[in-house]
Amino acid sequence: MRKKLGRGIAIVAAVMFFGISFTGIAPAAEKPIVIGAPLATAFLYGWVAERGIKLAVEEINAAGGVNVGGRKRPFSVEVIDTRDLEPGVPVSDALLGLEKLILDKNADFIIGGPVRSEAALAAMDLLNKYKKISILTTGALTPAYHKKVAENYDKYKYCFRITSHVVEMANDFVTLLSDVKKGHGFNKVYIMVQDVAHARGGGEAMKKMLTASGWEVVDMKIYPTGTTDYSIALNDVARTKADIIFLWMDMPESAILLKQWSGMKLRALPMGFVNAAEQPGFWKATEGKGEYLIVNLVNGGNAPANITPWTMKFAKAYEKRWGLEPEGYGTSSSYMAIYTLKEAIEKAGTTQSDAVIKALENVNLMGVYGRISFDKATHQIIASNDPKLGAVTGIIQWQKGKRVQVFPPKVAEAKILLPPWMK
Amino acid sequence: MDILVYGIINSVTLSLFSLGFTLVYSISRLPNFAHGALYITTGYFIWLFLNRLGCSYPLSILLGVSLAGLIGAMMYRLVLVRIRGMEISEIIATYAIGLAIIEGLRWGGLRGTTFTLPSFASGSRHILGVSVDDQRLLVVMVGFSVFAILYLFVHLTRNGLALRGIAQDERAAMMLGIDSDRMAIVSFAIGSSLAGLSAALILPLGNIVVEAGYNVLLFSIAVSVIGGLGSWAGAIIASFIIGFAQILTEKFLSAHFQMVIALLAIIITLLLKPSGILGRQKELEERV
Prior knowledge:
heterodimer, A: seven-stranded mixed sheet
């Protein structure tokens, strides 16, 4: 009996040994191309970027990987939480995270953040130091990023941005508001922004541009992060008979503002850059009181829409993988950054930085939110209101619980609706 | 008129934020720096009972507020009783507990806009010609009711009188047979429940976000310092001063100076009357 048992164990051990040996002598997998993703993962712009990147990587790997000079190499992803959107976290923490990705995780390319503008700008020198190509996909909206590339190309040539920026967004809003003005005869705007650099900058830019285009800007109020009551300003909106409430806020508490607006039945249409209203959960969070709000999602494809044939394919794949619709700014751009990088590496036939930079500068890819191509001098994605010509924005309006694309007109799926109390 | 109406709303909201903090300090002389964490934890508990366990809204609130009280009592019984009297340790311990709770919730996924509580009342009405939503009116009504109930509790009930006894003179109260530790536990339970109650009332106006925990703590400290540490009446007066000052700031200056006003008020109070409006730390004033 003991002998039999001993034999059995020996056979099992032999099978296990050979099994392991065979695994060992199987053709070695190609070395993965490591994507380093420095992201503020506790915040929308961080976690959606992570999801977008991972989805694209999974799809590409499932299809065989990246063809690098005739060898198929998979992508692998290393995410680090930079915490750069958390209040009080210094920029240096995000830079340490980025450096860790490059030195410890051996990232070949940086995709995603840093998310906060200040951190993204500071990271540009590190990218030059380590000669690492970065495609910024989320968060940072400052025009200073691509201006720095243009001013010192040799130093900052590693930095690309596949998402829009404040100036483009403000232009889109002004165009949209011109249409609204023509359609409804509105002419008074009340601006409410959050007390953070990008929102104050966006608010000031909008104030100048709207004034220049014939709007009367009644007032501009700046709110500290975490404000939970907007009653005074909303009563001012009613008193001044403003037609539009223009918002630029990335704090979750801005949902309160919409609840109050709806509760007061103010005869002013709210629109703007409202982080809290980007996500599908906003409808439930406001108990439907955010209906009619117009939100800029920065890039198309951050909500389901029919911009290109790839848009809905992406939206469905995202929903299948993560259990909900594309959530907001940073989703489609992070996803597209991986495909754009794949295209550039395959064109270059190598992962060497200089060759990939040239390939990225010449990329021409019809993506989720229109044609993806970069300005050669600034490395900023070329924007357009026509998806055949460039990357289009994603301006949506909340209508019956759905985020419906309402701008630009070429890809709009519905007209802008006014709340019943404004008719 | 909007200054008057929203000044009152803002002041009552601040009172609700800070009443629990003041109560705990007045009885046990312990600054509960976990107060803001208990506020946000209660919101999360209520959300959890409502959305994950399928409890009714009133039951969820009852359970959430009770749990907050229990956590407060346990905090004292398990941690603070061991370091009572060591002021720096008390501050470090309560702050550390608060920080651990808040950052633990953030780490655990309490982020974004998805965590919300339904409003009790969804309409709005005009008060003195100013549009006010019903939920805020409810906050004011419940706020005044809480002040009244607390007043009656500490003046008419045995436990309330014992709490006052400890607050006025701990040694004399102990000589009369009042158990100081027991009263501290009761004060922590009531103070934490008040933090929870304010969360149940105020969080439906917006989202449950961890940052609110820090804000509530900061405003509670501001109100308590200005009103006089440990003085309930002082806290209510200070709430009205800060509340109206904030509304005036928003109206005539800019909303982003609101926090500056609260902190400036602390500095001015410490310079002019270190023990606060109705504070009784005379030795502090004498020292100054």
